[in-house]
Amino acid sequence: MAIYVVDSNFFIQAHRAIYPLDVAITFWEKVKQLAIDGKIVSIDKVKNELYDKNDELELWCKDNLPSDFFKSSDESIPSYIQVAEWASSRSDHYLEKAINEFLDADEADAFLIAFVLSDNGNRILVTHEKSAPQKKGRIKIPDVCDSLGVRTFKTIDMFRDLGETF
């Protein structure tokens, strides 16, 4: 069974744009159950991005996600090196600022990719980011994943793949 590793935008865009906490209750109940069942997880870097706003979403995550939902990104350091080498090797395309931002230790994207890559046969990265390989000012998750053979899904594709409805 695949484990779906969710990006911070999985939560943020759902809460702000598609499935507000006060309206789409069954969506959030489904997310909670998938987390409890271990079908979805995330990493500590995503937790840091979600827990810096002191908002309703942060409170929901604290109250509803299992204590082991956010995995340590430390286990994926060897894969992170591979991701960093990929980004650095693209200095002829991406601006230095884009590479530095992507590899910033406080940013989740490179660590998310590395976490999935470290068990690539069993993990799928779930993100709302869209591929933009022509952009020079920002490295997008799907573009790195495409190059490194990491599978990515949008939220709805994850639900379909799991056979889940809400």
Q: Class, according to the CATH hierarchy?
A: Alpha Beta
Number of helices: 9
Which percent band covers the strand fraction? 5-15%
Oligomer: single chain
What is the share of helical residues?
40-55%
| Residue runs with pLDDT of under 50 for 5 or more positions | none
CATH topology description = Rossmann fold
CATH architecture: 3-Layer(aba) Sandwich
Major sheet: arrangement of strands: 3-2-1-4-5
Measured between the Cα atoms of the first and last residue, the distance is 21 Å
Instruction: Describe the largest sheet.
Output: 5 strands, parallel
Structural class: alpha/beta
Describe the protein.
There is one protein chain. The protein is an alpha/beta fold. The protein has a single domain, classed as Rossmann fold. It has 9 helices and 5 strands. It has a 5-stranded parallel β-sheet. Helix 5 packs across helix 7 and helix 7 packs parallel to helix 8. The mean pLDDT is 97.
Structure described in brief:
With about 170 residues, this protein is an alpha/beta fold. About 50% of the residues lie in helices and about 10% in strands. The model has no long low-confidence stretch (mean pLDDT about 95).
